[in-house]
């Protein structure tokens, strides 16, 4: 009722089709090169498509396609669970393959539903035809880099207007939540369960607000504060990433015989600082790519969302290559090479286009470049490695359409289980407490001394995993607890 009243005030009343929309299930593999589909088929999953309104204000108007997978329960069935991997704009079709084993004894009790959200993956796609796929970029060490990168993000917005303009008004989280409810109806479920990571926690929170009473068990891992979600979300993450970088430096210093980056944390940090300094002055040549102070902070920040030894070892390899490139051209290893290809070529243009469009479609941002420049300058001393990245202007400042609806005000007593690491470098821990206040019936599991984004089934914390699994099995929310 509240949703209908809000939309009526906006002049866009919503009438959801009453009939159950059909899903025709079939094998998942599209062609011999489709590894994702082959893996789903091998696991016994099935795939299907669902037609939903492009514009829920015109339910009988143009339709778009949602692609989804289903891995049916083989045990005593509890219900259907929709999965979202965050992003925003992350594809979810193959998530059941990862989540079934992670859920252990609960894994076979659910029909696991992998969903490519609207305009993502196999669903009706948008593609801004970007010349490179990385975003966000950093504003760099000085005004010249800031202005150059500003032109790049303005160009992203222009490309999205030119190549995906007809869809942009309808790319937002509220419409994705409406899509999830259409999936629920199509599956014939009175209630659905939901598990979302990162941005998926915001999507899940919005669904709880818009469609109360339609969920069974809800897990929100790596939570976002609904009041803070938007294109400027990362501006609060700089200190956590600086701390994660220092934590890694101490780890690497203790293993100097292996990585040769310095015997003390200060020496390791000096190596990182040299990389940034040379990137800003003359750039780094790594394989076919040239990196500068607009791109190096991205490479330094991406791997920091995991503090396990294997991830830290990979990060050390990245820094060693970057450091070597300060003395001359070098070739990257396969992991760094893959990251650079993903960032600096058009290979992931479709994925990045969906991510940008969702962020820009949800919440307006300041359009004055000086707001961002002043913000960066004010935090260079306290956030020397990442302020120019986390506080940089985004394509949303040039976005061709305004958000079509106000941001969702999340405030309800729908049950949910929130899972958070106290040192999460992406969605910082205060988000968890904030979401806990917005969802008054929710409970919170806190994993201490962990700098990891995404805990359940990923981090290897048995306390957190077992608590989530018990909730998925019996539906009883635990008390708030620390693992």
UniProtKB/TrEMBL annotation:
Pfam families: Abhydrolase_1 (PF00561), Abhydrolase_4 (PF08386)
Top-rank taxon: Bacteria
UniProt xrefs under InterPro entries: AB_hydrolase_1, AB_hydrolase_fold, Pept_S33_TAP-like_C, Serine_prot/Carboxylest_S33
Residue intervals of the AB hydrolase-1 domain: 80-263
Domain Peptidase S33 tripeptidyl aminopeptidase-like C-terminal intervals: 393-483
Record field: transmembrane: none
Protein family per UniProt: Belongs to the peptidase S33 family.
Protein name (Swiss-Prot/TrEMBL): Pimeloyl-ACP methyl ester carboxylesterase
Organism: Kribbella shirazensis
